[in-house]
Design brief:
The chain is an alpha+beta fold. The protein is built from seven helices and ten strands. About 30% of the residues lie in helices and about 10% in strands. The strands form three sheets. A five-stranded mixed sheet has the order 8-5-7-9-10. About 40% of the residues are buried.
Length: about 325
């Protein structure tokens, strides 16, 4: 009897043994968690690259059908390259919801059919426009210059290597040297669209689309960067501005940390450490380092016909 009782008592775990087992499990989790997180981020980065490849294919298909690239941004209610390529990313029904004719009528709080269609467009998320690594999204729930719940985007078309602000006029995006221009609502878009053949510097040396970081935080250096919303449909059509909703510039450094709103709004960059994904005109996607030579390489890569010979990248 005594021997039997002793045998039963000795078959359990002591408190020290349990603590040791728990400690070992905690150490294993601590070792494995970074690897799991890295694997997940690698998958997200792969999806981001795939998104850009799909957008590049959409641009080429659009060009084949329309014999030119789409307009960059048509000041007013969201007529831009993001809307134009929808039929080529399997979103033809969404494309058809854009009210016609193109004009600046409509109101965020309107109840007429045109306004309701515009609001519906603004709130419809399209996965190909969103990098999965971005912590915000797929919708912005703040009321920023319009209704809450607008679908977001992390990709900008390239306005050029000399655009210093996202307005019309001097150093603006209506006369910059990229493959996409902004156009005033009152201006017919004649001469404002480009063909691939206009990339005299070569499609492999011309930026087409790139990543951009959504940022709406004064503590992070930019308190007006409410861009990168897929259909920020109310560009400033009166003065011609806010085109950094859909257009970027290689004039500024990748992942710039400058506390300058124009620079932060127009620059390409992402949330990936060390650089950002860029789609070139020939369809290839490259991860561009944030330490790239700004003057001799990055700015020339934004130009469609500057005659520059960019260095190694």
């Amino acid at each position: 009897m005594n021997r039997h009782r002793l045998s039963k008592r000795g078959s359990g775990f002591t408190l020290i043994e349990l603590l040791v087992v728990i400690a070992i499990i905690a150490i294993l989790i601590a070792l494995l968690l970074p690897a799991v997180q890295q694997a997940r981020e690698a998958a997200r980065r792969s999806q981001c690259r795939n998104n850009l490849k799909q957008l590049g294919l959409a641009m080429h298909n659009y060009h084949d059908v329309n014999l030119s690239l789409p307009i960059g941004a048509y000041a007013g209610w969201g007529q831009s390259w993001t809307w134009a390529v929808l039929p080529y990313v399997e979103q033809a029904p969404l494309f058809a919801r854009m009210p016609t004719p193109v004009n600046d009528n409509g109101f965020w709080g309107g109840t007429d059919q045109r306004s309701l269609d515009l609001i519906a467009l603004a709130r419809t998320a399209v996965p190909v426009f969103l990098c999965p690594s971005m912590p915000e999204g797929p919708k912005e729930n703040k009321n920023i210059n319009g209704p809450a719940g607008r679908a977001m985007s992390t990709y900008l078309a390239n306005a050029g290597g000399d655009a210093r602000n996202d307005n019309l006029g001097a150093n603006g995006m209506d006369r910059s040297n990229g493959l996409f221009h902004a156009v005033a609502m009152t201006t017919a878009p004649v001469g404002r669209t480009f063909k691939f053949r206009d990339a005299i510097d070569g499609l492999s040396n011309t930026v087409l689309i790139g990543e951009a970081e959504y940022n709406l935080s004064s503590t992070r250096g930019c308190n007006i960067c409410d861009r990168y919303l897929f259909y920020h449909m109310n560009f400033d059509s009166g003065n011609g501005g806010d085109f950094s909703e859909v257009l970027g510039s290689t004039y500024y450094r990748i992942n710039t940390k400058a506390k300058n709103n124009s620079e932060r709004e127009c620059a390409f960059g992402g949330i990936h450490t060390g650089g950002t994904h860029i789609l070139f005109g020939d369809g290839k996607v490259k991860f561009m380092s944030e330490s790239i030579d700004l003057v001799n390489v990055w700015r020339p890569l934004g130009s469609r016909a500057g005659g520059e010979v960019p260095g190694s990248f």
